[in-house]
Design goal:
- A seven-stranded mixed beta sheet has the order 2-1-3-4-7-5-6.
- By secondary structure, it is an alpha+beta fold.
- The longest helix has 10 residues.
- The protein contains six helices and seven strands, in the order E-H-H-E-H-H-E-E-H-E-E-E-H.
Length: 154
């Protein structure tokens, strides 16, 4: 199963905003929503095509309430997420799955009073030793996202 993770903007309650809008609520109605991190929603789809299609359907809401939309596609990686843009390029056949791994955005994961949350990302390039260590602050874990060259530069 392909997973989608929506990382909410800090100033909004992502679940409340999406489910209070009829079109977004209808688009999400068939999915079981989970909150693996504070102000994030995760769901499972059947494929990278279904995931990117859902994100396209939700685009109006994503622009307003979401900082990041991520896709975890098992045919690419079991542990590293793809940015929305990179997932669409894989779906379209513009990028081979093996070519998706050199540029990364690494989020820190910290535990807190209200559960785990994602903290400021760090952009890194994969080295021969693997993913460089997250060093922006002390964290409990990391979430690795593969990104496009354009996203890496921004």
């Amino acid at each position: 199963m392909t997973r989608v993770l929506l990382v909410g903007s800090a100033e909004v309650d992502l679940r409340a905003e999406l489910l209070s809008r009829e079109t977004a609520r209808d688009a999400l109605a068939t999915y079981q929503l989970r909150e693996p991190y504070r102000n994030c929603l995760e769901l499972e789809t059947i494929s990278v095509g279904a995931a990117t299609s859902l994100l396209n359907d939700l685009n109006w809401y994503l622009v307003r309430f979401v900082d990041e939309a991520l896709v975890l596609e098992p045919s690419v990686s079991d542990e590293e997420w793809l940015s929305r843009t990179l997932a669409a390029r894989v779906r379209d056949g513009d990028v081979e799955p093996a070519e998706t791994d050199p540029l990364l955005k690494v989020y820190g994961v910290v535990g807190g009073e209200f559960g785990e949350e994602l903290v400021e990302p760090m952009y890194v390039a994969r080295t021969v030793d693997g993913v460089p260590e997250y060093d922006l602050r002390e964290v409990d874990d990391t979430l690795v996202v593969r990104v496009t060259e354009d996203e890496f530069r921004s």
